[in-house]
Amino acid sequence: MTTSEVLLPTTRRALLHRIATAQAEGRTPSLVAAVQRDGRIAWSGARSCVDGHEPDGDTQFRIGSLTKTFTAVLVMRLRDEGLLDLDDPLEKHLPGTDAGEVTVFQLLGHSGGLAAETPAPWWERTPGETRPALVDVLGEEPLIHPSGHVHHYSNPGYTLLGSLVERMRGASWSEVLRREILEPLGMERTTPQPHAPHAGGWAVHPWADVMLPEPVEDLGLMAPAGQLWSTTTDLLRFATFLAQGDARVLSASSVEEMRVPAAPAEAGDWASTYGLGLQCVRRGDRTLLGHSGSLPGFLATLWFSVEDDVAAVVLTNATSGPLVGTVAADLVQIVAEAEPRIPAPWRPLPDVDAELLALTGPWYWGTYAYGLKLLADRGLELRPLRGAGRTARFRACPDGTWTGLNGYYAGETLRVVRAADGTVDHLDLGSFAFTREPYGGSTSIPGGVDEGGWRGLMI
User: Fold this and answer.
1) Which of 60, 143, 214, 288 has the most CB atoms less than 10 A away?
2) Residue 56 to residues 235, 282, 312, 314: CA-CA distances in angstroms?
3) Per residue, what are the HEC states of 89-131?
4) Picking from 59-63, 192-196, 422-426, which range would have the lowest pLDDT averaged per residue?
């Protein structure tokens, strides 16, 4: 049984109602949105202030800081090719800036301590020629926080990453982007400059229903932070890549690495963090990943949920008004909750390793009871049998150990410790001994076990 590509009429109407409300209450000239499920566009819709001129999935809008995610992918490609390490200081590969101590990792996650914006004048509304060199982008004192101590969103930081890409590839940022991401993913309608059909950017007066055209500037060196134009169709292709990876661009493990928070959330904002070029938002029980964007005349958001396999894009041509991030999150929620993902059929493992099978079942860390389950590809899962506790999945390693993939035990090593006769004595997980019985085997437990053993209440 397969899932239909067409959403239910009630779901489609809920989606249309949400964007219609956003366009009307947000007072934006036009708004276009699309939702993807199971890797296919399941719904699209648009609203416009001019009847018969609604944008569609081929209409370009400026996407602002969504551009940063593309730049981050280019940097991750350099890392995967062994050309740099994320912990490298910028100075190693892009010398001569006053921010050379900041690492590539910190720039990707906005924890380098750089200022949020360039020196005046307002860079989004001035030609790129206004800042012909990196010193014009960074100013005299580019660092306003200690590097690595706090998340502080920085547009100049992504200008540095774009310049790093250009230096290491020997080509312009836009050319590298086209060659390494846009062409392989078939994103023909994503470009640094607008190509018809495209929307015009507008400012809507906050106290009257009148509009003012916004200027469109080439951002020059700031392009890697916010230059791109795109469509809902292209951005949903990009969402599929960010959820699954693509060997032509970046592996699944590398895009998964981008989705991991790279800097602590600010106090009072625990539901929102930032990975490597990706925003990470917790909305109820759902994790949304993607990015928002804005430039004068335009607002954009892409959110996707890996667990639900649903993505949504919302694009609009107003400087302010509709809360497109909220709208995109609502679109994901409408589909995920009205038509939840149907799980794949259960299937047994293709083969059985008797030694691994013998490791499964209950284990005890002191008196805490855990269950060890065998997964595909010789992987393991450790889960508490009662109440809350440290759940973790483990990947099998060639040397016969396992490496933690998530939670408290991420990166930690799980190994089987055998007795002199070859039988399994206990499991060692980051120095913790897991035994088959609570505090079983005095030789396995640091500090030993009381010789009197377990006992009842003595009166």
Assistant:
1) 288
2) 13, 29, 14, 11
3) EHHHHCCCCCCCCCEHHHHHCCCCCECCCCCCCCHHHCCHHHC
4) 422-426
